[in-house]
C-alpha cells in the first residue's frame, strides 16, 4: 500500500544506497582518522586494489571522501591518499544514532529476537544477491563478508570458531545485544544458506572473549583447513565459549 504524498520515492541517502563492501571501505577510511592508501585498505579486506579504487572513486564523487597526493619519496608519481570528509562524520553519527533507536524500539516489541533474526537473514540474502554472478557462494567466504562489515575476524580455527575483534555499531550492541547481535547472527545464517550449508549450527557469544565476540560456525569446522593465526591462537578455548558472555554485554550465546 502506497502512502499519500508527492509522486515518486524520496532520494535515498548515499550512506544507505551503497553496497556493503563500499560501506566497509568508507568505514575503514573514517575510523582510521588519517590518510589511507589504496593498498592498505585492499590488504585489510583482502580485496584487489582496483576494486578498492573503484569504491573510493565512487565515494569521492559522493563527497564522502577526499583525495590528495602523498609527499614524494622518490621517482614516480606520489601515491594518492584518501581521508573522510566532515560529511562522512556527520552521516556516520546520524546513522549510528538511528541504529541505536531502531534496536531499542525493536527490543520493546513482542518477539523481538525473532524479528531481529528475520531482519538479519533478509540483510544477508540481499548482500548475497548483490554479489551474484561473481562466483558460486562458499562457506569459506563467510569470514570475508563479516570482515567487510568491519568486524575484523580472525581466521576460523579447526572448530569453526572465529573471534570478532571489532564491532561497527558497538554502542547499539552494548545497549541492546539481544537485538543487534541477533541481527548479525541472522546475517551469517543467510550467507550459510546461500552456500548450501547448515545455517542452524552456528552461535554468537557477545564479548565471549576478552578481545571481542565469539562466532562459531559449524560448517567451517568441516570446510576450513584451520590454517593461519585463528581464533584459537587468540586465546579462544574449546570449553565455555558459548557461556562466556561478558558482564554488562549480553547473557551468553545467541544461538540459532
Structure write-up:
The chain is an alpha+beta fold and 256 residues long. It folds into two domains: 14-70 and 79-84, Orthogonal Bundle (Arc Repressor Mutant, subunit A), CATH 1.10.10.10; 111-255, no CATH class. The chain contains ten helices and seven strands. The chain has helices at residues 14-17, 20-32, 38-45, 49-61, 86-107, 112-130, 142-148, 170-175, 177-194, 218-223, and strands spanning 36-37, 65-69, 80-84, 161-164, 202-209, 212-217, 254-255. The chain has a four-stranded antiparallel β-sheet with strand order 4-6-5-7. α6 (112-130) packs across α9 (177-194). The two termini are 33 Å apart. Mean pLDDT is 77; it is low at 1-17 and 223-248.
In short:
With 256 residues, the chain is an alpha+beta fold. The protein has helices at residues 14-17, 20-32, 38-45, 49-61, 86-107, 112-130, 142-148, 170-175, 177-194, 218-223; strands at residues 36-37, 65-69, 80-84, 161-164, 202-209, 212-217, 254-255. Strand 5 and strand 6 (212-217) form a beta hairpin.
Amino acid at each position: 500500500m502506497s502512502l499519500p504524498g508527492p509522486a515518486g520515492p524520496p532520494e535515498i541517502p548515499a550512506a544507505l544506497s551503497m553496497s556493503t563492501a563500499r560501506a566497509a571501505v568508507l568505514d575503514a577510511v573514517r575510523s582510521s582518522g588519517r590518510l589511507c592508501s589504496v593498498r592498505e585498505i585492499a590488504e585489510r579486506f583482502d580485496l584487489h586494489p582496483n576494486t578498492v579504487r573503484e569504491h573510493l572513486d565512487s565515494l569521492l564523487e559522493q563527497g564522502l571522501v577526499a583525495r590528495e597526493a602523498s609527499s614524494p619519496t622518490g621517482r614516480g608519481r606520489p601515491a594518492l591518499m584518501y581521508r573522510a570528509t566532515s560529511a562522512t562524520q556527520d552521516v556516520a553519527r546520524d546513522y549510528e544514532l538511528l541504529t541505536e533507536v531502531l534496536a531499542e524500539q525493536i527490543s520493546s516489541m513482542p518477539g523481538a529476537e525473532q524479528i531481529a533474526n528475520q531482519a538479519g537473514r533478509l540483510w544477508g540474502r540481499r548482500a548475497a544477491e548483490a554479489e551474484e554472478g561473481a562466483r558460486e557462494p562458499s562457506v569459506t567466504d563467510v569470514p570475508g563478508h563479516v570482515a567487510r562489515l568491519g568486524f575484523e575476524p580472525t581466521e576460523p580455527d579447526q572448530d569453526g570458531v572465529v573471534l570478532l575483534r571489532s564491532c561497527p555499531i558497538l554502542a547499539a550492541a552494548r545497549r541492546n545485544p539481544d537485538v543487534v547481535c541477533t541481527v548479525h547472527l541472522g546475517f551469517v545464517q543467510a550467507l550459510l544458506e546461500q552456500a548450501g550449508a547448515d545455517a542452524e549450527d552456528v552461535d554468537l557469544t557477545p564479548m565471549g572473549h576478552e578481545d571481542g565476540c565469539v562466532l562459531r560456525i559449524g560448517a567451517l569446522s568441516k570446510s576450513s583447513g584451520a590454517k593461519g593465526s585463528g581464533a584459537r591462537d587468540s586465546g579462544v578455548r574449546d570449553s565455555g565459549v558459548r557461556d562466556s558472555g561478558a558482564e554488562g554485554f549480553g547473557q551468553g550465546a545467541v544461538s540459532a
